[in-house]
Amino acid sequence: MSKSEEILSINEIKHLVDAFYGKVRRDELLGPIFNEQIGDRWPEHLEKMYRFWQTVLLNEHSYSGSPFPPHARLPIGKDHFDGWLHIFRETVDENFTGSKAEEAKWRAGKMAEMFQYKIRHIQSSGKKSIY
């Protein structure tokens, strides 16, 4: 797949997700957290992420669920989200161009912002989780 590719179908979504999580799994900060939480369920997780991004970017409703609750109890903070977002944007920029690529980066940024806010709220309230 060349960088000039636009995100137009599930094939590009799968390429994006696979490339992104390949980097995440090798990352010194993020890899241990993801690998511990997901364990041997990577194929299942990747399928869920394909459906999530297919729904978000292509408006093809194949994902149902709530993406935040699995993250609510994790010992993560700003550094983790900054790293996640850096890897995501880097992966998009290395592989894709066009409006959907820009939308993917924007949506990832908004998602990271919202997740951080919710996790800070949970951590500061002393609750284990609100979910």
Task: Describe this structure as you would to a colleague.
By secondary structure, the chain is mainly alpha-helical. It has a single domain (10-125), classed as Globins (Globin-like), CATH 1.10.490. It contains five helices and no strands. Helix 3 crosses helix 5 (99-125). The longest helix has 27 residues, at 99-125. It is globular, with a radius of gyration of 15 Å.
Précis, in short:
This protein is an all-alpha fold. It has five helices and no strands. The chain has helices spanning 10-26, 30-38, 42-58, 78-95, 99-125.
Radius of gyration: 15 Å
**How many structural domains does the protein architecture include?**
1
Mean pLDDT: 90
For the terminal residues, how far apart are their CA atoms?
39 Å
Do you know the CATH architecture?
Orthogonal Bundle
| SS element count, helices | 5
Largest sheet: none
Give the helix level as a range of percent: 55-70%
Low-confidence stretches: none
CATH-assigned homologous superfamily: Globins
Shape: globular
Subunit arrangement of the protein: single chain
The CATH first-level class comes to Mainly Alpha
CATH topology title: Globin-like
Helix-strand makeup class:
mainly alpha
Proportion of beta-strand residues: under 5%
Q: Return the string of H and E elements.
A: HHHHH
